[in-house]
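Example 3.2
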Amino acid sequence: MIRKADEELKAIWLEEFRTLSPEAKGALKRVLKALHKDALQRAQYQWRNNKAPMAYYWKVVGVYAGHIARAIK
């Protein structure tokens, strides 16, 4: 059931991304790469300051932003 929902969401999002202009895709990719870099730096800062929950949060944000940026063609 979850797999079916994931496939449906993926289809919706793929269609949405396909409608974007090349310029919009490029801008989105640049923004996501910047978010990826910034979030990973914030994660390291939080980890050094012994704030593991916030480090985890920023690490996840960075990973997802990086994955989405690489998925944009």
